[in-house]
Design brief:
Radius of gyration: 19 Å
Largest sheet: 8 strands, parallel
Order of helices and strands: EEEHEHEEEHEHHHEHEHEEEHHEHH
Strand order of the largest sheet: 3-4-5-8-9-10-11-14
Structural class: alpha/beta
Strand content: 15-25%
């Protein structure tokens, strides 16, 4: 039986998204192959549990995630977001589908190529419609724009997006009703602030930059978003895995790489306080990210029905106020960080 997950407005778009959504990067075979049946079962479980916001991208498995998402959610009342900024070019030479390419072990014979231009954005949008099997897209994010991804080519890529007409193409799609909301999907704060000086964003998908381990977004980004009416969707609430378990796992990963010692030490202190309060580390991480009023949804990456069930359980787990108070008293959470005040287990109106 489907559960009711409360929804929150997405900027000023008129769209509303469930507080907990489904990050579909793992369904592109991120780091490991996910069988088709397991991927479909994960999405079916998400729909049944009320996680009716699914985020995907052409980059995730070079089209594999979009195809899986589209086939599973077609005919259901679901908010779907995907991304622009990369085109998929055919690979016509033999390759090993089990070999990792750009982080994915995908059988799809394509190679991602960055393109933030006007024509590139429109081409990406049209290609995603075909892979998803949809007539429109609810939310379109510009994917991985910023110096963190592009280094010395940042200026050129940003020029394609702003002066070169990429963002204008997105605005046109929204004006025509072809998309419901537009934004950026990134792993860094600096590009969010830079772009907000130049364009209007409905939503920012911020991956890994507002978590139990990181709260820098409180300084400038979240206040700026509040003033502009821009919502935040939190991706990577577990910081690439270091916060994902009930307790801290050995040799944890952080920011897609082995965690450095200072980060591990801080995570160990957080995990110890969670354990003392009989609270799962992952539950605390999930609920903390959702506590900020600017956050519309939190979308952990999910790859199985069991992970969906665990996510719902974590979202509903009662967490004693003493846990948050102790984390702040120990300097592990910023004093100004909003903390959960109510449980997500409620019926949406």
């Amino acid at each position: 039986m489907s559960s009711a997950i409360a929804t929150r407005p997405l900027g000023r778009t008129g769209l509303a998204v469930p507080e907990i959504g489904f990050g579909a990067a793992p369904l592109g075979n991120l780091y490991r192959a996910v069988p088709d049946g397991e991927a479909r079962a994960a999405l079916d479980a998400a729909l049944d549990a009320g996680l009716r916001y699914v985020d995907t991208a052409p980059h995730y498995g070079f089209g594999l995630s979009e195809r899986r998402v589209g086939d599973a959610v077609r005919g259901h009342d679901v908010i779907v977001s995907t991304k622009v900024g990369r085109l998929l070019r055919p690979v016509r030479t033999p390759f090993d589908a089990n070999e990792e390419r750009h982080g994915f072990r995908s059988p799809m014979p394509f190679e991602p190529v960055f393109d933030y231009s006007h024509d590139g954005v429109l081409r990406s949008y049209e290609d995603s419609l075909q892979r998803l099997g949809r007539a429109r897209i609810d939310v379109a994010y510009v994917h991985d724009i910023g110096r963190l991804t592009h280094g010395d080519q940042h200026g050129e890529r940003l020029g394609q997006l702003v002066e070169g007409g990429g963002f204008a193409a997105l605005r046109r799609l929204k004006d025509e009703g072809a998309i419901g909301a537009l934004g950026i999907g990134v792993n860094e704060i600096a590009i969010c602030l830079e772009l907000m000086e130049r364009v209007e964003l409905d939503v920012i998908l911020l991956a890994g930059r507002y978590t139990l381990l990181e709260q820098e977004a409180l300084d400038q980004l979240f206040p700026r978003c509040a003033a502009a009416g821009t919502s935040i969707v939190i991706g990577g609430p577990y910081n690439s895995g270091i916060l994902a378990g009930d307790t801290l796992a050995p040799s944890p990963h952080y920011n897609y790489a082995p965690a450095p010692a200072p980060v591990v030490e801080r995570a160990e202190r957080i995990a110890a306080i969670c354990a003392a309060n009989k609270v799962s580390l992952g539950a605390a991480a999930l609920q903390f990210a959702l506590a900020h009023p600017q956050v519309a949804s939190v979308i952990p990456g999910l790859a199985s029905a069991a992970q969906v069930e665990e996510t719902v359980r974590r979202a509903r787990l009662p967490i004693p106020p003493a846990l948050w108070a102790e984390l702040k008293a120990e300097g592990l959470l910023r004093p100004d960080a909003p903390i959960p005040t109510q449980n997500i287990e409620k019926v949406a109106s």
